[in-house]
Amino acid sequence: MNEKERLPEKNGFPDPLKSNCSKCEKDFFIKFVVSRQNYSQKNSLDYWSGKEEDENQKICNSCLKKLYYDKPAYWKTITDLRKRNLLRNYINTGFLK
Prior knowledge:
The protein is α+β, with helices and mostly antiparallel strands. It has four helices and five strands; from the N terminus they run βββββαααα. It has helices at 45-49, 61-69, 71-77, 81-93, and strands at residues 5-6, 17-20, 27-30, 32-33, 38-39. Strands 1-2-3 form a three-stranded antiparallel sheet, with no helix packed on it. It is globular and about 40 Å long.
């Protein structure tokens, strides 16, 4: 993704990365996860689908929720049961705002 921009670092940790949603084309930020020492995979479409063709495609929280509620597309895109359960948990706990 060529349009990633880093914000200035605060408190010694990298600030969120600016990214562009591959579905709705809106800009959003991906948070840095301290425990993983990397940026969150939640907004990476290839994390959910496991498909190489989805590599480097980012998806915002709003579009991720829309995917979850569009069951035929959800079942086709996310085939791993563990990841389906994880996304369902994110939706039900309000983790995706």
